Amino acid sequence: MMKPTTQKNHWIKKIGQLLNHGDRPWFGLIIIMSVVVIAFMVAIGYMLWIDSGPSRVAFGLSFLQPTTDPSWDPVNSNFQAWPFIYGTLITSIIALVIALPVSLGIAIYLSELCPAWLRTPLNWLIELLAAIPSVVYGLWGIFVFLPQVVTPIGTYLFDIFGNVPGLGSFFAGPIPESGASRLAASLILAIMIIPTISAVTRDVLLAIPNSQREASLALGSTQWETIWKILLPYGASGILGAVILGLGRALGETMAVTMVIGNSIEGTISILKPGYTMASIIANEFAETVSALHTSSLIEIGFSLFVMTLLLNMLARLLVWSVTRKTPQEARA
Amino acid sequence: MRKSLFVSLFALLIAAMVLSACGTAATPTAAEAAPATAEATTAPVVAGAATATPTLAPGSVQVNAGGGTFPLPLYTQWTYAYQYVDPSVVINYQGIGSGAGKSGILDNTLDFAGSDSLLSDDQYTKGKDLQMYPTVASAVVVTYNISWAKKFATPAGAGTPTPTAPTTAPTLILDRQTLVDIYNAKVKTWNDPEIVKLNPALKDYLPAATITVVHRSDSSGTTEIFTKALTSFSTDWKAGGASAVEWPVDKAGNGIGGKGNQGVAAAVLNSKNSLGYVELSYATSNSMAIASLVNKAGKTVVANAASIASDMTDFASAFDAKLTANIVDGAGDGSWPITGYTYFILHTTSMTDCVKAAKIVEFIKWDLTDAGAAAAAKKLGYSTLPSDIQTKVLTALGTVTCNGQPVK
Amino acid sequence: MTTTSYSELLKKGVERRRVSRKGTNGFMLTLTGALTVLALIPLFWIIGYVFYKGGSTLNLAFFTQLPKPVGMTGGGVLHAIEGSLIVTFLATIMAFIPGVLAAFYAARNPNTVLGIGLRFSTDVLSGVPSIVVGLFAYALIVKPQGHYSALAGGVALAILMVPTIIRTTEEMLKLVPTNLREASLALGAPEWKTSISVLLPAAMDGVITGVLLAIARAAGETAPLLFTTLGNERFDLGTIISSGVTNHQSIIQILGRIFSSPIDSLPLTLWKYAGMPYPERVQQAWGVALILLILVLATNILARVWIEIRKRKLRG
C-alpha cells in the first residue's frame, strides 16, 4: 500500500536520494585532498627550483664543487656553497658512524634479548629521545654537553692526533674553549638519530621469521652468532634503509646544529674547528640577504638539501620495504 | 545539538582563517573608534601622555617593526614605556639584524625598520620613498675574555711599598692597526708582540693562546660601523665596510659567528681567550671587559658618553641630504673611533593605513623629544642627537604623508 | 710418553672454541644492553638538567606575564605560550582535515596512480628539512601577503604534520577488520557514510594517537617559524580581544586579526633567549625548555595511556 506523496515526503525522499549518492562528493573530496598533498610536494620542489634560478645561472656547478679556497662574499656577490656542504656531510657521516653501533645494539637488545615486561617501557624511552625538541638539545648542548663532554674529547683528540702528518689536518687546531665545533654538532646529531635508526632496525629484525633463528640455533650457534651471522645479513637491506633514514634526518637538522657548530665559514677540514652547515646558513642569513643573488644562493642551498633528502628517502623506503614487506614504519626525518 | 554547535564553531574558525589569509586585518579607523575616555595609567618611566584624538581602545593598533640589535636594548625600553604613554598602540620591535630590517621595509613585511646599516642606492630606488631618520648614536666596543697566564698579585699589606705588578687585570689597550691585524688573522695569539708593545705591564700575563675572534653571523649594521672603521684604520683591511663581509679569521680558522649583538656578547662570555665587537650597552650591562683604543689623534680613549660626543662633534657637518652620516675614526683628541648613528627607516609617501602611520610618526617624535626617553637612552650609554640634527629630523618627519594627506 | 690421541686433540680444540664462542656470546649480548643504557644516558641527563635548571623559573608570573625589558625583574613568557597554542592549533586544523581525508584514499585505492603518487609525496614530505618548509611558507604566504603571521607559521607546521597524520591514519584504517566495512555496506549504507560513521570511529584511537604525536612534534619545531612568524613580545590575547570588543569588531574580525599578526612561540623564544648574554634571559630559556619538555612528555604519556585505555575497553 503506497502512501500518497505529500509535499514533505517528497522532500524527504529527495534528501534521501542525495545522501545515498553522497558517494560522489565524498570521493571527490578525498581525491582532491590527495591531489592537494601531492601538489604541495611538487610546489615545494618547483618553488625551490625557480627561485634558485639566478644563482644557478650565475655560478653553475662551481657553486657546489669542493674547493680549498671557498668564498661566501655578500659584498662582491661571489658565493660558493662548499663549506656548508662539507659541514653538513661530515657532521652527518660522523654522527652515523657513532650512532650505527649503538643503534644496532639497542635494536638487537630490544628485539632479541629484552625480557617482555621491559620491552614496552624501553621502546617508549627510546622514542622519547626522538621527541625532545631540537632547540632543547641545542640549549643543553651549549651549556652542558659542550663544556663537559665535547671540549675534553676535542682536547684529547687534538693532543693525540693533532700533529700526526696527514691525519693531523682532520684534527687540526685546538678546539675552541666553548666547544663549538663540527665535532660538537656530530655528537649531538648522533644522539638525535639513534632513535630513528634503532626503531627501524628493531622492526626489521622483528620481521625476520623465527624459522631462521630456530634453524640457526638447531645447528648449534650461540645466540650472538645467530644474530651476527644470520639475522643481520638477512635484514641487511632493511638496516641499510634505517641508516639512510637516519642520515636523512641528520642532513636536515637545523636548530641544534646551529646552536653548537660555531657558525664560521672556514675552509679547513678539521672537525675540531667551528663550521657551518647548509641548514644553518639558511637559518642565519635568509631573513637579511643583501642582494637578490644572495637570496637565490641560499635557496639553491635549500634546493640541494631538498634533493639530497628526497633521494635518500626514496632509497631508504625501497630498502626497508624489501625486508619488511609491509607498510614502512613511520620514521622522522 | 552538540554536533551543530561544533560545526558552526568550525565554520567560524575557517572564515576567520580565510579572512586573515586574504588580507590584513583592518585596524579600526578613527571613525569607528568608540570615544572612550583615556584611562589614567601610571607611567613608570616617562611623563606626558600623547593627546591623540580620538582615543582608541587599548591595543587597537599593532605596529610591527624590526631591525638592528645595536639599538635593541634602548628600543625595548622605549616601546615598553610607550604602551603607558599611548595604550592604543602596541609596537613590536624585533632584533633581527639591520639587514633583515632593511629587507623587511623593502618588501613591506614590516611597518618600519631600525637599521645602523645604510640603505644602498639600489635599495633607495627599489623602495622608492624610503627615508632614514637618525635616532641615537653609540659606540661599538671591543670586548674580550682572557684567561690570564699569571695570577695578578694580591695587594700588599699596609706599610709595604706599592707593588709594581698590577693587582687586578688592567684594561687592554689596542690600537687601530692592531685591531685590523687581529681581524685579518695576522695577529693570532694574545702574546703577540704587537699587543705586548701596547700593554707592557701585561707582558707576562698575556697567554700564548690563540685568539678566538668573534664576529656577526647575520647581516648587521654594527658590523657595517665596525668594518667601515677598520677600513679607515688601515689599508690592510681588504674585506670592505659592509653589513656582511667575508671574515679573514674564518678562513684562518679562529673565527666564530654569533647571531645579533647578544650572540656575539654571549660567545665572548662563553669562550675563553676570545674577543669580539659589540655595541656598548651589551658590554656594560654584562660587566664585560672593554678594550681602550688609541684613536687617530694618538690618544688612548675609553668608550663613554664624552668620547662618543667628541666623535659626533668631529663630524658635525657630515650629515648629508639623506640625513645619514658616517662618523667613524674621528680626528678629535677625545674621540672614540668606532661610533655610529642608528636610524629608523620609513616609507614617506606610500603608507596606506593612516591611523598606523600617525601612530608611528608620533612614536618617533616622542623618542626624540621626550625627556624620559632621553634619560633612558643616557642611562644605557646611547647619545642623543645634537639639537640642530634633531630639528632637521623632526622637520623631515613632518613631511610624511599618508594617502596624500600629511600625517599628524 | 704422553700421547694425546687425535680425538682428544679434537675435543680440546672444540672445547676451547666452545668456550671462546660462549665468551663472545656473553660479551656481545651484555654489550648490547650496555649500549642501550648508553643511549638512554643523554635522555635522563637532558630531562634531569632541564627540570633542575628550569624548575626554579616556573612561577605564576612566568606563565601569565609578558616579558619585561632586560634589567627589570619579573616578566614571563605568556606571549610565547599563547603563540604556541595558536600556531599549533591552526596547524592541527589545517593538517588534520586533508591528512585524514587523503588517508582514506590511500587506504582505499593504494595501487592507482594517485595512490602511488600520494604515498610517494608522503614519503618526500616527511623527509623535507623543516627549514626548507619554512622557506616555502615564506614564499607562499608571507611575501604575497606582505606581513609575517601566525597563519603562515601554521601552514608551515601543517606541511610537516600532514605526512605523519596520513601515515598513521592509513595504517589504522587498514587495521579495521574488513567484515565491519562489509557489514555496513550490506546494511545499505553508502560508502561515504560507512567511512565516516563506521571506519573512522573504529580507527579513531590510532588516529588520535597519531595526531597527538604530530602535534607534539610540531609544537617543538623552530626552523619553520623563523621566516613565517617573526616573533612578537607584545602579543597579548587579552588586549586584542578587549580592543576588538571595544571597537565593535565581529568575532571573525578579531580572530582574523589574531591569525594575521606576527607571533612568538615557545621554541622561537627558547632559540632567542639561549643566545643572549643576559643571565636572566638564559634562565628564562631553561624555563621555556622545561615547559616544552613537559608538553612533549605529557603528550607522549597521554597517547600511550589512551591506547591502553582503549585496548582494555576492547578486551572487556
Write the layout of secondary structure elements.
The complex is a heterotrimer of chains A (333), B (408) and C (316).
Chain A: H1 7-20, H2 23-51, H3 53-59, E1 72-73, E2 78-79, H4 82-113, H5 116-131, H6 134-161, H7 182-207, H8 210-218, H9 223-234, H10 236-252, H11 255-260, H12 278-285, H13 292-324
Antiparallel strand pairs in A: 1-2
Helix pairs in contact in A: 2-13, 3-13, 4-7, 4-10, 4-12, 5-7, 6-7, 7-10, 8-9, 10-13, 12-13
Chain B: H1 2-22, E1 61-67, H2 72-85, E2 89-95, H3 98-106, E3 112-115, H4 121-127, E4 130-145, E5 173-175, H5 176-183, H6 193-198, E6 212-216, H7 221-233, H8 248-252, E7 255-258, H9 260-270, E8 274-279, H10 280-285, E9 289-290, E10 292-294, E11 300-301, H11 305-314, E12 339-347, H12 354-369, H13 371-380, E13 383-384, H14 387-398, E14 401-402, E15 405-406
Parallel strand pairs in B: 1-2, 1-3, 5-10, 6-7, 6-8
Antiparallel strand pairs in B: 3-12, 4-8, 4-9, 4-12, 4-13, 10-11, 14-15
Chain C: H1 6-55, H2 60-64, H3 78-108, H4 113-127, H5 130-145, H6 150-175, H7 178-186, H8 191-219, H9 223-226, H10 237-246, H11 251-259, H12 266-274, H13 279-315
Helix pairs in contact in C: 1-13, 3-6, 3-8, 3-12, 4-6, 5-6, 6-8, 7-8, 8-13, 10-11, 12-13
Through-space gap between termini of chain B: 53 Å
The biggest sheet of chain A amounts to: 2 strands, antiparallel
Supply the helix-strand structural class of chain B.
alpha/beta
Which range does the strand content of chain A fall in? Answer: under 5%
Q: How much helix, percentage-wise, in residues of chain B?
A: 25-40%
Succession of helices and strands of chain A: HHHEEHHHHHHHHHH
Largest sheet of chain B: 10 strands, mixed
Evaluate the radius of gyration of chain B. 25 Å
Number-wise, the strands of chain A total: 2
* Relevant CATH superfamily of chain A: MetI-like
- Look at the structure and give the mean pLDDT of chain B: 82
Strand order of the largest sheet of chain A: 1-2
Brief digest:
Chain B has 408 residues and is of the alpha/beta class. Chain B has helices at residues 2-22, 72-85, 98-106, 121-127, 176-183, 193-198, 221-233, 248-252, 260-270, 280-285, 305-314, 354-369, 371-380, 387-398, and strands at residues 61-67, 89-95, 112-115, 130-145, 173-175, 212-216, 255-258, 274-279, 289-290, 292-294, 300-301, 339-347, 383-384, 401-402, 405-406.
